[in-house]
Amino acid sequence: MSIDIDQIKRLRDQTGAGVMEAKKTLEETGGDFAQAVQILTAKGLATLEKRADKAVGEGLVFSYIHSGAKVGSLLMMGCETDFVAKTEEFQKLGKELALQVATEEYADVSALLAAEYIRDSSKKVGDLVTATVAKLGERIEIKAFTRYSIK
Description:
The chain is an alpha+beta fold and 151 residues long. It folds into 2 domains: 5-50, Orthogonal Bundle (Helicase, Ruva Protein, domain 3); 58-149, Elongation factor Ts, dimerisation domain (Tetrahydropterin Synthase, Chain A), CATH 3.30.479. Helix content is 51%, strand content 18%. The chain contains 7 helices and 3 strands; from the N terminus they run H-H-H-E-E-H-H-H-H-E. The protein has helices at residues 5-15, 19-28, 33-50, 82-85, 88-103, 109-114, 125-136, and strands at residues 58-65, 71-79, 140-149. A 3-stranded antiparallel beta sheet has the order 1-2-3. Strand 1 (58-65) and strand 2 (71-79) form a beta hairpin. The longest helix has 18 residues, at 33-50. The protein starts with a helix and ends with a strand.
C-alpha cells in the first residue's frame, strides 16, 4: 500500500512523531490512520513514564478573563524545558485550562483533571493534558490555579 505524504504530515501534526516513524507506523497499520495514532500515542506515553522523575522547572502563567470582566482565572503550568513552554501546543493547552478553571470552583488539581472538558463533553480535562504530553514528549504539570469571581 502506498502511503500518502499528506497522511504522514497529518499523523505528525496530531502525534508529534518524526517523519520516518509516522511513515513506518502507517505502513504497519496498512494505512489505518486511527490505529496509527493509537500506536504512536502509546509509544509517546511509554517514553514519558521513563521521564516521570524529571524536574518540571520551566513553564508559564496563563490567564483568562471572561467577557464582562466578572470572572477570571490564573493558572501556572510547568514543563521540563523552556523550549516546550514556547511551543504552540503548550500555550494552547494553558489557555484552554485557564478557561476551564474560570468555569467553576475546583477543589484541587485532581478535581480539575477529572472534570468534563467544557468544549467536548466526551473528554476529561486530564485527556487534554495527556494528549499534549504525548505530543510534546515532556512532563507537563499543573502547579497551581485560582478562580476569581465578582458575585
